[in-house]
Amino acid sequence: MTAELTSGSIEEAIFLASDNRYAYNLTSTIEAMIGRPLLSQNGRTLGGSSEINDMYSVRGSRELYNRWAELVGDQWSYDQIRSLFKENETYTGDTQNPAERGTNGPIFIRQQIIPTSGLIQTLTNETAQVLGIPVVQDYNTGIRDCTFYQGQYNQREVNGEFVRSSTATGYLNAQIVTPGNQFQSDQFGVNRRRLAIFGKTTVDKIVFQKKKKRGKYVAVGVDFVKNGVSMRSYARKGIIVSAGFFSSVILQRSGIGKTEDLTRAGIQTLIESPNMGYNMQAHAYVGMGVRVETSQLVPILLADPDQPLALGAFKAEHPASLEAYVKGSYSNFFHFGGQCRMAETIEEGVVDGFLNVFGTKNLKVADLSVSPILPDGNTGIAAEMIGLNAARFMKKDPNSCILSDDELEEDDDEED
């Protein structure tokens, strides 16, 4: 399936994202502000949303991550995570700061090919002059305020064509994962660590020990459904939830959340976590156009009899008319985060600065939902950085609470 999805075409990405085989296409209830529902798309294939997104590569700014550090700890400052961005990438473009870029990582990033002279360059220079913001060759160097004309994409050139570079192709390719099955796995990951991947499987909830340890519930397993059959797997050393848009839902089904929300869904509250599923942020946009003064535009459109020619333009100055236009054209990028946000206490968030779920042991969340503030750019690269930082945390504290076979069997007996 991954090979089918690795096209470097943004147009094909849009088509594939609308296919329910590869993405969860969900529609919200009517949004009161705009009087209509909004759509969310989230990857449901190996590589998740990195296999269906538009492949724009944006780290986010130094200022943004330093703000994270102020809220939850220096382990999220730009100086601390810059090495993770570099570790993650093989950058093949030009840059004004080579020390900022990685050259040997699993995710390939290319720079858009645009002539150094021409209309786009002219517009860029004029914009920079008007705004007083410098033109830079490479915006992925921690810069926030800049002007640029060459975008960057998660793509790799293969046999003269650009193909998608995703977490599936970068971290879970055939050189890393070998065929196996979920019962007697012979799948191996980096450094021969066992790695079993269950396809066509939906996670239900996290399983906890019945008795607390030092005032916290210990995560011991995962309930899931595979091919219509409910199953359970146990974990001695810990569980990581990396479901993005759905992470808060999994935790709520596990009994972690605001009591009134859980009660409404028929779920018994295990841990009162008032921020679970709240504080979600998203990037939004309002459509707008530019009037082009050229005699060539009309003949090109008229050359295709099936191409309707739009006459006139929306022009308005009255605030009510402008408000109506904004509501009518408002939409959202599929950049969601914050519903499991990091904070210092459970009264402020869902996980701590090291991604541990408040009130639990051996349970982390590692995806964009932990963002205290949504990254200031496309979010795919930021999500990958969060995963790498989670790995860094676990290496420093690998086994905070190792469970014995007896403890797991004891829990299983209690469940029966």
Automatic annotation (TrEMBL):
Domain of life: Bacteria
UniProt keyword rRNA-binding present: no
Keyword Flavoprotein: yes
Domain Glucose-methanol-choline oxidoreductase N-terminal: 32-284
UniProt family annotation: Belongs to the GMC oxidoreductase family.
Name used for this protein in its record: GMC oxidoreductase
One MF annotation (Gene Ontology) recorded for this entry: flavin adenine dinucleotide binding
Residues passing through the membrane, by range: none
Lineage: Bacteria, Bacillati, Bacillota, Bacilli, Bacillales
Annotated FAD binding sites: V203
Cofactor(s) listed: FAD
Entries under Gene3D superfamilies matching the protein: FAD/NAD(P)-binding domain
Alphabetized Pfam families for the sequence: GMC_oxred_C, GMC_oxred_N
Domain spans labelled Glucose-methanol-choline oxidoreductase C-terminal: 317-387
Keywords: FAD, Flavoprotein
